[in-house]
DNA sequence: ATAACAGTTGAACAACTATTCAACTGTTGG
DNA sequence: CCAACAGTTGAATAGTTGTTCAACTGTTAT
């Protein structure tokens, strides 16, 4: 007699049950896209900077010792994820956190890795 | 007189202040690495499956219509991030969530994108 | 011992992504 | 209007990453 994992553990039934509980495929995809935004140290650094204070692109660039172009590109990604917002004052553009949600998410991660 | 952003907004002082508040560079890097793990829809799907029930590699593969090899590769990443743990039973290896931390982090993200 | 099964692993390839560079927009002061 | 500054953008490049494939380990039943 065949002792497959399938037959031993009754896969087909369990698999069907679990499948019903899963969120929509598009939601799972969107969630991964969202977390991708946190998956880059430059963006993480920018977010941490904005935790402390709103700041213009040049200021962030100076702080992180990077070009304004590089920072601007990443700010665009952060804005796309609705994590930051911008405010223009003359030639300068100030960026700040869109909401406090971000803080919680990042603190959650920090907790996990420092265990 | 030069009306630089620098001089107008007193960058150097603010920048220095904020720099002191930032976590270690290595911590910020590790945090980004951690979030990278959530930044893939296959891994997100696997985590959601394990929310419902512990499951073997073949079961997950069947559920997600993917090869065992692909799943095994991703489980390795998840294990590396200490998000899942394994348990052997004969030829079968069962995976499950390492702790409930993961649930909170993922729910946090879901909240943000469904706003 | 050996065959069959469950899972792992490393190399290779394709797809994606972060930074750089140069050219651009928009704003302000002269 | 023009020059200078702050920031943005698109193309190009280098580095990273997910899946596939084939070969491998480890376990169990005969």
Key terms for this structure?
homodimer, 115 residues, alpha+beta, 3-stranded antiparallel sheet, 7 helices, elongated, DNA-binding
Low-confidence stretches of chain A: none
Name the helix and strand elements of chain A from N-terminus to C-terminus, one letter apiece: HHHHEHHEEH
- Provide the helix percentage of chain A: 55-70%
The biggest sheet of chain A, with number of strands, parallel, antiparallel or mixed sense and barrel status, is: 3 strands, antiparallel
What does the radius of gyration of chain A come to?
A: 21 Å
Average predicted confidence as pLDDT of chain A? 91
Strand order of the largest sheet of chain A: 1-3-2
What would your notes on this structure say?
2 copies of one chain form a homodimer. The first copy, chain A, has a 3-stranded antiparallel β-sheet. The termini of chain A are far apart. The model of chain A has no long low-confidence stretch (mean pLDDT 91). The first copy, chain A, is elongated, with a radius of gyration of 21 Å. In chain A, helix 5 crosses helix 6. Chain A has helices spanning 5-9, 11-21, 25-38, 41-52, 57-64, 68-80, 101-113; strands spanning 55-56, 84-89, 92-97. Chain A has 7 helices and 3 strands, in the order ααααβααββα. The first copy, chain A, has 115 residues and is α+β, with helices and mostly antiparallel strands. In chain A, a hairpin with a 2-residue loop joins strand 2 and strand 3. At the A-B interface, helix 1, helix 2, helix 3, helix 4 and strand 1 of A face helix 1, helix 2, helix 3, helix 4 and strand 1 of B.
